[in-house]
Amino acid sequence: MNTRNEQYQRICAAIGEKESVAVAFSGGVDSALVCAAAFDALGDRATAVTIVSPMLPAHEIADAKRIAELIGIKHVLLQSPDIEGDVAGNPVDRCYYCKKHEFGAIIDYAKTRRIDAVLDGSNADDEGDYRPGMRAIAELGVISPLRDARLAKQDVRALAKERALPIWDKPAFACLASRIPYGETIDVEKLAAVERAESILTEAGFRQARVRRYSIPGGALARIEVAPEERKLFFDEASLDALSEKIKKIGFIYVAFELSGYASGSMNAAFYAGGRNSGNG
């Protein structure tokens, strides 16, 4: 048995100690691996649960449906159309309140179905950045099999590839609220504008892209980040004009480009520097 297979079997064994589980499934590679392990360990006693909210773009929900079907795991969509007040206010610990609401809904669902435990896809790397949502997960008693196994993101991707999950190399994704600076109110219209702008970049061929939205007098500014290795694709005059025009049609007054490219948690820079007007993701 190779090392990767041993790691995966240990995760399956740990999950298999539960009578039944519900996996918080976002459509990303981490939670997809947990869904696969849960299904391999428990079969029809495992359920994937996706929260459908303004925070999660349509393409992520579509990925969750597709991957759940591929794995064979039962998949439940819980509708959450409203943005709770303590989340909408967008404090620096917004993620704490968001996780409280979302995982609270999954826990309630699990209780009504007499499901034994709720799992998530947090991995060991999630302990490195400012992530107040981790505190909510701990308080609610959610189990993180990948983090408990001390698996980093690269380990997760390797295991997902061995398990033949087609999203094993899918770029990291954070909820749309992470595109709004802390302290600036979050609403459905702002999130929808970010989702549309990022879709424009995806359609243009960028695999890893973020559009950070900043309110300015008279409207909003879009700050674009793409993966460092994809920056060279940006510097074509015709492409720049076309992207600028399309994004401005959404309602942005200015479209700016982050020269250093995308980095996870880049909007936490102001937070670490003592500023309040920042964000994460």
Give the helices and strands, then pairings.
Blueprint: H1 3-16, E1 21-24, H2 29-42, E2 46-52, H3 58-71, E3 74-79, H4 85-88, H5 94-112, E4 117-119, H6 133-139, H7 145-148, H8 153-162, H9 188-203, E5 209-216, E6 219-226, H10 237-250, E7 254-257, H11 269-272
Parallel strand pairs: 1-2, 1-4, 2-3, 6-7
Antiparallel strand pairs: 5-6
Helix pairs in contact: 1-2, 1-8, 2-3, 2-8, 5-6, 9-10
Q: Calculate the mean pLDDT score and round it.
A: 92
Strand order of the largest sheet: 3-2-1-4
Main sheet attributes: strand count, strand direction, barrel closure: 4 strands, parallel
Strand portion: 5-15%
- Along the chain, the helix and strand elements come as HEHEHEHHEHHHHEEHEH
Radius of gyration: 19 Å
Q: Number of DSSP strands?
A: 7
Count of structural domains? 2
Explained architecture:
This protein is 43% helix and 14% strand. It is an alpha/beta fold and 281 residues long. The protein folds into 2 domains: 3-162, HUPs (Rossmann fold, 3-Layer(aba) Sandwich); 176-272, GMP Synthetase, Chain A, domain 3 (2-Layer Sandwich). Strands 3-2-1-4 form a 4-stranded parallel sheet, with helices on both faces. It has a 3-stranded mixed sheet with strand order 5-6-7, with helices on one face. Strand 5 (209-216) and strand 6 (219-226) form a beta hairpin. The chain starts with a helix and ends in a 9-residue tail after the last helix. The model is unreliable at 275-279 (pLDDT under 50).
